Amino acid sequence: MADRDKIDINYLYSKKAEGEKISWLTAYDYPMAKYEEEAGIEMILVGDSGGMTQLGYDSTLPVTMDEMTMMTKAVTRATETTFVVGDMPYMSYQPDRSEAIKNAGRFMGECGTDAVKLEGGRRMAPTVEAIVNAGIPVVGHIGMTPQSAALLGGYKSQGRDAETAKGLIADARALEDAGSFAILLEAVPTRVAKIIYEESQVPIYGIGAGKHVDGQLLIAHDILGLFELFKPRFVKRYAALGRDMVDAVARFKEEVKGGEFPDPEHSYGMPDEEYDKLV
Ligand code: KIV
Fold it and tell me: What is the position in ligand 1's atom list of the atom closest to the CA of 49?
């Protein structure tokens, strides 16, 4: 457990005021969340990316509310002071506002998160407003929004021409006006993120949005080398745990085949007198 008070929205706003960047990673299970809190990470996103990194789907679209709640509860059980954000999965908020409020409420009430995140700008602003009016803090998410990849023409960075960049700036304004307490920008040019950052009152966080934002999010499996199917440009690898796992498992197999495992150190003994009674 990190030696600090519970992180809340006031903390996030005070860090913005002080110009101190926030560190934010995904986690989808108990051990990952525990290690992240021990390392001092301030925010955890239980992302629907867990559908790919953890559950093996080939996109985030199949992820259900039940799968999200299972992963989210494991994370909130593991954390005491970290600010945990639950990611609303595909079709848990798009079709209907009252369903959106109920599902956001499941993250808060059933899973114990501190906030929810949902994808979409101007089109989703009325839904954000409805959830906020129900007393639930919302992080807006714009730019490359994976749940709309089919509409965006794939997993591509967004806002690279003046026209679409203006659209992103308008999306950020609409989300702030709708009551989002923070906005996440994914895969947008550094210059566009800077404009949004400079004109927003709420914290602006980035994943692939350059350095002129209030904090950085990355997917833990990407930085730790636990997901190797593809690597977006913005991902920096800090470890190769997947390769370490393969090596460790292969060594175990070799030792089993060669009879080196288990050795006496990893086996239970029995006093001679008891053994003598037995044979
Ligand atoms: O699900 C997730 O991890 C996300 C990030 C990619 C922003 O939404």
Answer: 1
Determine, yes or no, domain membership for 4: no
Q: Are residues 180 and 268 in the same domain?
A: no
Please report, for residues 2, 65, 124, 127, 173, the alpha-carbon distance to residue 93 in angstroms, rounded to integers and kept in the order given. Answer: 33, 10, 9, 8, 20
One domain for residues 235 and 260: no
Residues 109 and 163 in one domain: yes
Cα-based torsion angle of the residue sequence 13, 14, 20, 23 in order, rounded to the nearest 10 degrees: -50
Quick check: 186 and 159 in contact, CB under 8 A?
no
Q: Determine which residue's CA is closest to atom 1 belonging to ligand 1.
A: 47
Residue nearest ligand 1's atom 5 by CA: 47
Going from the Cα of 147 to the center of ligand 1, the distance in angstroms, rounded, reads 10
Tell me if the pTM is above 0.70.
yes
pLDDT one-digit tens code per residue, 151-178: 998 899 999 999 999 999 999 999 999 9
Measured in angstroms, how far is the CA atom of residue 238 from the centroid of ligand 1?
A: 19
Separation of CA 212 and ligand 1 centre (Å): 19
How many domains would you assign to the chain?
2
Residues with CB under 6 A from ligand 1: 26, 45, 47-49, 87, 184, 186, 207, 217, 219
Task: Clarify whether residues 268 and 199 are in a common domain.
Answer: no
Q: What is the pLDDT of residues 248-269, one digit of tens each?
A: 999 999 999 999 999 999 999 9
